[in-house]
From TrEMBL:
It holds the Pfam family Anti-Pycsar_Apyc1. Transmembrane segments: none annotated. This is Metallo-hydrolase oxidoreductase. One of its GO terms (cellular component) is nucleus. Homodimer. Residues 340-355 have a biased composition (Basic and acidic residues). Keywords: Endonuclease, Hydrolase, Metal-binding, Nuclease, tRNA processing, Zinc. CDD domains: RNaseZ_ZiPD-like_MBL-fold.
Amino acid sequence: MAFRATSLLKAAASLGSRRSFKPVPIPKISLNKNATSKTMASATTATRQSPLDVQLTFLGTASAQPSSTRNHSSLALRLGSDVWLFDCGEGTQSRLQQSIVKMGRIEKIFITHTHGDHVFGLLPLLASILNGAGGAADGEDEPRAHIDVSNPVIEIYGPLGTRAYIRTGLKYTHTFFSTPYVVHELRLPWDPKHGDHTPLPCHSAESPNGRNIFQVDGVWENIFEDNVISVSAAPILHSVPCVGYVVNEAPIPGKIDPKKYIPELKRTNTHISAMSRLQKGESVELSDGTVLHGPPRRRGRKLVILGDTHNPAAIEPLALDADLLIHEATNAHLPNIDPGTKDDETYRSVEERTRSRGHSTPQMAGAFARRIRAKQLILNHFSARYPGNDDVDPMAKIYMDAIAGLAAREYGKEVICARDLMNVTIGVPES
């Protein structure tokens, strides 16, 4: 059935305008092309300096099947010069090579669930990062079969089965690494309390110090924490065990007004280096006994990154007042826009079918964003029916504007639809 572009534009406008909304000020977000739950920072992480440059790169925004414009799920979070990945679907390595993200800076990988479209790219990526290419011929010694695993370069977090998946894949592909990794599993109350959920022993490059982390009050709080950043997690409902992650930044230095301090420093012949202490929020006592107090610290940023879900309610207490929520929107009802729409389909029937498969519609994402008071919502994880080149294709833009409009009706604010290789900078809050 053919559709005229003008008709599609009208339909898209109708979908997005049934509930008016006003954009509100948000942190600067710009688009450019059996263990305790805490852990020390990995050896690759130096003490971080606050505030950090924080930027997201969407490496893959497709759901079950990739398309010519969308890769399987993966998201890179850059914290200063370090990179953390969230999920690693098939083709992630290729997308990294096309992006501005430095593969060699990856130090942590967080897996939301072990469906293939979220993990099939993990082993090839590890092989590249940890020198897993090649092998020794018959009779030759493989030096990588015996390495020091006491200082893992890569930390991997994921649900039960993550460790077993990696071990099995590495064993039966005869892959060795020259540098070590470690896997921490987020275990549910009914998961085994001990063991690795596989009869296979640790891989030759796997640290045996991977933790099995259990919930406290229904969440995994501070599974990682250093002087600036912490990560917590909670189970979210999908068709298989799935995790949502919350990245929290510690309070950051406030804005300093040099005019308030420099005259006092000059008056008492205090070295200008005192300004760096004041900038950190510290107090400085001058030679005449005057005490200068640095500006109060501002709240840090909070990012909520969800895996596939039809109900993320369990993460709500951790996610409140997020600066950015990334939420899936796998399916949408787009009458008069999507030619694949069936005559008997309605918004309700599409939502019911989507929920039954463990996924969300744009309206469900928008409602959750409103409930947690998120300052910005970005939709992700789209069906292959929805093109990912809306920045260059007017017809694709009609689709994605309509999807964003459906979410905005529930959210009450403007919504962004992610596309592959989109970069998003999360600015420092004003207060």
